[in-house]
TrEMBL record:
<dbReference type="GO" id="GO:0009738">
    <property type="term" value="P:abscisic acid-activated signaling pathway"/>
</dbReference>
<dbReference type="InterPro" id="IPR000008">
    <property type="entry name" value="C2_dom"/>
</dbReference>
<keyword id="KW-0479">Metal-binding</keyword>
<dbReference type="GO" id="GO:0005096">
    <property type="term" value="F:GTPase activator activity"/>
</dbReference>
<dbReference type="GO" id="GO:0046872">
    <property type="term" value="F:metal ion binding"/>
</dbReference>
<keyword id="KW-0446">Lipid-binding</keyword>
<comment type="similarity">
    <text>Belongs to the plant CAR protein family.</text>
</comment>
<dbReference type="Pfam" id="PF00168">
    <property type="entry name" value="C2"/>
</dbReference>
<dbReference type="GO" id="GO:0005634">
    <property type="term" value="C:nucleus"/>
</dbReference>
<keyword id="KW-0472">Membrane</keyword>
<dbReference type="InterPro" id="IPR044562">
    <property type="entry name" value="CAR1-11"/>
</dbReference>
<keyword id="KW-0106">Calcium</keyword>
<dbReference type="GO" id="GO:0008289">
    <property type="term" value="F:lipid binding"/>
</dbReference>
<dbReference type="InterPro" id="IPR035892">
    <property type="entry name" value="C2_domain_sf"/>
</dbReference>
<keyword id="KW-0539">Nucleus</keyword>
<keyword id="KW-0938">Abscisic acid signaling pathway</keyword>
<keyword id="KW-0343">GTPase activation</keyword>
Length: 173
């Protein structure tokens, strides 16, 4: 009798390039006297990237694009904000995560629908107890690229939100 694996993925299969644009932070927590010097560390599996530090700012605008390769099994994107300090170790300003599975599923739907041009909303995600979403987030196909704009609520702190734009570049097969 043929025994199939529980899911269809092939371990280590290369799915595409994931571009994470860390757009901005809002209402971040104070970790110095009156402000903070925030930067964001983004992790996907064993890949890590970080933004630059923005000094003395609780509503920083980074607009920085960080690139990752996405492989099966699809993991979770982890984000953590820190306050840069010179004389002591950096302080924590909250963390958030994003499940990338909906984006990968959206890519499959796009392939089935053969969407390669124009802008089409593939699916919408709503905030719930299983994610960090602040508001509804839609996954769009924009000229063949999958684009998702997201506001994430930072966990473990009194306040703070992060805005990301995720682009998933994967061949139409
Ligand atoms: Ca500082």
């Amino acid at each position: 009798m043929l025994c199939l694996p529980p899911s269809e993925y092939i371990m280590g299969e290369h799915l595409g390039i994931l571009k994470v644009i860390v757009v901005q932070g809002k209402r971040l927590v104070i970790r110095d006297f009156k402000s903070s010097d925030p930067y964001v560390v983004v992790k996907l599996g064993n890949q890590t990237a970080k933004t630059k530090v923005i000094n003395s700012c609780l509503n920083p605008v980074w607009n920085e694009e960080l690139s990752f390769t996405l492989t099966e099994p699809v993991g979770v994107l982890n984000l953590e904000v820190f306050d840069k300090d010179l004389l002591k170790s950096d302080d924590k300003m909250g963390k958030a995560f994003l499940n990338l599975q909906p984006l990968v599923s959206a890519a499959r739907i796009r392939n089935i629908l053969r969407v390669s041009s124009g802008e089409t909303t593939i699916r919408k995600l709503v905030p719930d107890s299983e994610n960090c979403l602040v508001r509804e987030s839609s996954i769009n196909s924009v000229n063949g690229e999958l684009v998702q704009n997201i506001w994430l609520r930072l966990q473990g702190v009194e306040s703070g939100e992060l805005e990301l734009t995720i682009k998933f570049i994967t061949p139409l097969v």
